[in-house]
Amino acid sequence: MTLTDELIRLANELGSDEEYSRAGGGNASVKVDGILYIKPSGVPLATLRADDLIPLRIAPLLDALHSDKKVDGDPVQAAARAAQLHDANGRRPSVEILFHALIPDPLVIHLHPLTSNAVTCNEHGEYLTKQILGDDALWVDYLDPGIPLARGIEEARGEFTRRTGKPAPQITLLGNHGIIVSGDSYAQIISLTRSLTQRIQDAIDQASDSGALRLSPSQLTGAALVLQEATGKAAHALSNSGIAIEESALSAGPVSSGPLIPDQIVYAASLPVILHPPYEPSAITRAVSAYHEEHGHFPIIAVLPQRGVIALGADAKAARNALDTFLDALRISRDANRLGRVRTLTHEERSFIENWEAEAYRRSIAAQA
Ligand SMILES: [Zn+2]
């Protein structure tokens, strides 16, 4: 089987699987002797044939990628015209030719798969890629198609090699777009593509089972210690199971909208600080400073949506009490929504308690003096 035959087999197989491709979505190419043979726009992967492929010289494509020279019209189509080997009968190569050209592997397939896009179309895409796939995949943020995307991919590949000393991975995840898989045989690319899908599907299944991708106890404790340092509190208490992950999404009332009852304000403060992955110490410290700036005091509760809740206190008992108070609020909120729709205290209602509490505290201190 020639490399071109392997490409056609790959394109037809993945292109006719709804998991990987709808209608004309996706692209495929093969490199032979400095020439890139690529699927034209408008021909589906499922029915691609060897004589559909458009041959383009690779060198002029890479020149266009690295040049800042202004060109007339669309720079990608200009590069394609400069690179074309013979007349393409009016067919256009895809806007994605440049990233096909820059990836050195002979076979490259690009798809918009349903399962993998649960990661690429995700606020936490980069973190999830790292967590689920480690160094087996490269993450690239969303970029405009054409030259900006190709340059972003090239930059990410270079960064990976500088960081690890290894060649860039054969799998690339493109934010809000899809995947690229490359290799030197049909068998290799099929196996990489199917195992990528399986690993992400496993993570989705696991998340549906437990309510979240769980953090290890040491990760959560690490975050708690950073919070203690940032708030000057001596103790923490935490939960990463049950209600603390099942009901701690950003949409939960006590997480984003406000407290349910005045007691919650007294023991757990009106609102928690929200922490987002990957929970780096510097980011946690920044979140605490921003919270302090906005509320005039340090947070008592930190919510890691769908991963856990951390409470801070002057001693272990105070931290535990704050945690229990907040977890109770999450439970009440869930049950209120089952019956109807949760109502949180309004801004005016909670401001009164916040200020009243401060006054009451000052009064009690004053009484002791
Ligand atoms: Zn695409």
**Total number of helices:** 15
Mean pLDDT score: 89
| Distance, first to last CA | 91 Å
Assembly annotation: single chain
CATH hierarchy, class of the largest domain: Alpha Beta
| Biggest β-sheet strands, sense, barrel | 7 strands, mixed
**Which second-level CATH architecture of the largest domain applies?**
3-Layer(aba) Sandwich
Uncertain regions spanning at least 5 consecutive residues:
none
- Share of helical residues: 40-55%
- Total tally of structural domains: 2
Q: Please identify the structural class as seen in this structure.
A: alpha+beta
Q: What value does the Rg take, in angstroms?
A: 27 Å
Q: What letter string, H or E per element, gives the SSE order?
A: HEEEHHHEHHEHEEHHEHHHEHEEHH
User: What is the third-level CATH name, the topology of the largest domain?
Assistant: L-fuculose-1-phosphate Aldolase
Strand content: 5-15%
Structure overview:
It is built from 15 helices and eleven strands. It is of the alpha+beta class and 369 residues long. The strands form two sheets. A seven-stranded mixed beta sheet has the order 3-2-1-4-7-6-5, sandwiched between helices. A four-stranded mixed beta sheet has the order 8-11-10-9. The relative contact order is 0.09. The model has no long low-confidence stretch (mean pLDDT 89). It binds zinc ion. Zinc ion (ZN) binds at residues 96, 110, 112, 177-178.
